[in-house]
Amino acid sequence: MNLNVVMIVMILALLIPIYEAWQDENIWQKMLAFASISTKASIMILVVSVLRDDWMIGVVGVIILSVGNASLMLIAHLLKRMSDVLH
């Protein structure tokens, strides 16, 4: 399979949660969509790093994959605690 076709399919898969985040007003659905975007973007970075045989790009992809989702889950937890306190 051609590399250009793979990257186009990955970008199209990235657009699905972007559309969902834009369409939905529920904060939890938006955060789930953003977590999906973060994961897909880091996987795309890892694929590019393997194809280019560049481990530094791969390290950036791994950092985004681990730290990006952890910070998003921290924000979700804080929002939940704040809504529990307010109600």
Describe the overall structure.
The chain crosses the membrane at residues 6-22, 31-51, 57-79. This is Sodium:proton antiporter. This protein has 87 residues and is an all-alpha fold. It has one domain. The protein is 91% helix and 0% strand. Helix 2 (27-52) runs antiparallel to helix 3 (55-86).
Task: Spell out the key features of this protein.
3 helices, 87 residues, mainly alpha
Concise overview:
This is Sodium:proton antiporter. The chain has 87 residues and is mostly helical.
Q: Layout of SSEs?
A:
Blueprint: H1 3-23, H2 27-52, H3 55-86
Organism: Anabaena azotica FACHB-119
Transmembrane segments: 6-22, 31-51, 57-79
Protein name: Sodium:proton antiporter
Q: What proportion of the residues is helical, as a percent range? A: over 70%
Question: Whole-number average pLDDT?
Answer: 80
The geometry reads as flat
Proportion of β residues?
Answer: under 5%
Largest sheet: none
Per DSSP, the total helix count is 3
The count of domains is 1
